[in-house]
Design brief:
With 299 residues, the protein is of the alpha+beta class. 30% of the residues lie in helices and 27% in strands. It has two domains: 7-124, no CATH class; 142-295, 60s Ribosomal Protein L30, Chain: A (2-Layer Sandwich). Strands 1, 2, 3, 4 and 5 form a five-stranded antiparallel β-sheet that branches. The chain has a four-stranded mixed β-sheet with strand order 6-13-9-12.
């Protein structure tokens, strides 16, 4: 045995798998867990070239994939103190339920965890590694907001409760037109870019709050809130006549549809599993949405 040998570790590949039924996947990262060293870390590919080679550049949403990577990194950081054994690591692997999946753990001898992780990444994934601090998709203070949303989720009993900061975005209307060269009907959605960003924020907060995929009937409680305009305020603060109810655009049903779509594949496999939605929209100090995901009674 080498003098520098520290112990045994376990690694799992992070794979992009858009269709679990086909079992086709591209390696985009690796996780290394060393129980003896209390070491848990991951490296993920910075680019999308490997996925593009496997599935084609039109087969994936780059923004959604970036958010999935960020959410995975956050989830991994939250697990650092909770994983002590191989069984713990296996349970963590089993909770992955979106396009990013983890392979069953394999044992490996570990001398220097950081160096060995880099070596595993080089051999099994290749390319340039993503840095955890690289190009954040959200504002710098979004991380602090996210911490507060996770804290709220952990304080709830029997339900996943979290807050998504930011301006709520409604699902846009679909419209189609005839492509003059190909003759094909092209369908696009209004508000697509804003909707993608808002959906990504919902997904990031849901994952960080520990929301996992469930096939049970689901009840959603959604409280959308919009920052009050200056006309609601005076020198003393909020005007007595300032309304609470938000009675202007966007429409409540379209706000709900966007959340339903964003949580598909995270909280439930299909939004047909949602049997009850309690939603409202109000004026508030800051914009965002309080979301509660819980199992509905099935009698």
């Amino acid at each position: 045995m080498s003098e520098e040998y520290m112990g045994r570790g376990y690694f799992s590949l992070i794979q992009y798998c858009p269709d679990l039924s086909r079992l086709e996947a591209a390696n985009i990262g690796v996780v290394l867990f060393c129980p003896e060293r209390r070491f848990l870390a991951a490296k993920a590919a910075a680019g999308k070239d490997r996925i593009a080679r496997f599935f084609g550049r039109e087969s994936f949403d780059a923004d959604r994939l970036n958010v999935a990577k960020r959410a995975f990194e956050n989830s991994l950081r939250n697990q650092t103190d909770g994983l002590r054994t191989l069984e713990d690591f296996q349970r963590f692997i089993d909770t992955r339920g979106n396009d990013l999946v983890l392979t069953p753990p394999r044992s490996v001898k570990v001398t220097d965890p950081e160096r060995d992780l880099a070596q595993l990444f080089s051999e099994l994934v290749g390319g340039r590694a993503r840095h955890q601090g690289q190009q954040p998709m959200f504002p710098v203070n979004f991380g602090r907001m996210l911490d507060r949303s996770v804290h709220a989720a952990r304080s709830a009993h029997g339900a996943d409760v979290f807050f998504v900061p930011g301006l709520p975005i409604a699902k846009g209307s679909a419209r189609g037109f005839l492509h003059r060269h190909t003759g094909r009907i092209i369908v696009i959605q209004d508000n697509r870019k804003k909707q993608k960003t808002w959906s990504a924020q919902i997904g990031l907060c849901a994952r960080a709050a520990g929301v996992t995929l469930s096939t049970a009937p689901i009840r959603l409680r959604l409280a959308f809130q919009f920052s009050r305009p200056k006309s609601h305020l005076n020198a003393a603060g909020l005007k007595l006549a300032a309304p609470r109810a938000h009675t202007q655009k966007p429409d409540l049903d379209k706000l709900v549809r966007c959340v339903l779509d964003a949580l598909t594949g995270l909280a439930y496999p299909d939004d047909s599993r949602v049997v009850s939605v309690d939603a409202r929209k109000d004026w508030a100090e800051k914009s965002g949405c309080h979301i509660t995901v819980e199992a509905a009674e099935d009698r």
